[in-house]
Amino acid sequence: MTSPKILIVQLGRLGDFILATPMFRALRQAYPQCRIHVLASRHNAALARLQPEVEHVHLHSKKVLATLKLLVRLKRAHYDVWIDPKDHFSREGSFFARWAGAERKVGFNQTGGRKFFDVSLPSQAEEHTHVVWRNLQALSALGVEANDPRPSLHVTSAAQDQLSQFLRAQGCAQYYCVNLSAGNAIRYWPLEQWATFLRTIKTETRAFVLTAAAHDAHLAETLAQQVPHAYYFPTRQLSALLAVVQRAELVVSPDTSIIHMAAAFDRPVLGLYSNHDWNYKKFYPLSTHCRIVLPSAPGGLIRDITCESALEKFQELLTEMRGAR
Predict the structure, then answer these.
(1) Helix 238-247 × helix 257-264 angle, to 10°
(2) What is the pLDDT of residues 131-176, one digit of tens each?
(3) Helix axes 217-226, 191-201, angle to 10 degrees
(4) Rounded CA gap, 292 and 303, in Å?
(5) Which positions ≥6 away from 60 have C-beta within 8 Å?
(6) In whole angstroms, what is the distance from residue 249 CA to residue 18 CA?
(7) Rounded to two decimals, what is the model's pTM?
């Protein structure tokens, strides 16, 4: 099989897709002529379309008519390999795999249930491993042994130009990227903590470029008013956000997809995580230089992180970065 036609399922959120991108690189290296397609969700389809290794993106919609059309396209595609790397049973994912009828199917089979996949992957309950390594493990069914966990992301020149114009307008060249938004409410750090943290570490030589989801724009605008040299850069398009992360000297963010974007460009990361062992084992930062800030109590949430502990880890990270120069 020198030029397999491969479908990779990624129906999760943005961060899940980013952690699947090392699969594309590994497949392209092992099979230079392979054709890689992705079954994506509305959360990550835009990013999937930016990936140079991906030939085609199927968008999964919950609408009945759209789903029926999708099933027809998947059936007609005649995939050689179907890979669904998630670590738990999905009735929907299993149905799609069976319907498409790929020659070889890799995925999670429910214990004691019907075997929808030819090659079964272990569950997270059996193996507390970072998601990126679990994804790469799914490729072993093709004889692909990958050892590079770095995500791979593409930044458009238009997005880079847009960021350059913004930085010139603010009169800053070097900056720390500070992301305020997260996937759900329990992953937010209070605004007053952000303000204290940034005012304490403020520097005349570097600005803070604030990023936030559109519905959190008011948070970034408020913080920009409270902290000297802090500027909110609205990133309405994903490519603009990637550009901000790519050029940042350092990235500070709650546990969300920004952490994994930073790993793609090997940007140093200060990540704010809840104190749940399983969570940070699955999603810890993959950048060369990084620090995780946790609340002191087991089970504590990001809102319980003290400013003092964040500052301590920030200084540790800066010291490490300076020592590596």
Answers:
(1) 60
(2) 999 899 899 888 898 889 999 999 999 999 999 999 999 999 899 9
(3) 40
(4) 14
(5) 11, 39, 40, 41, 42, 67, 70
(6) 20
(7) 0.92
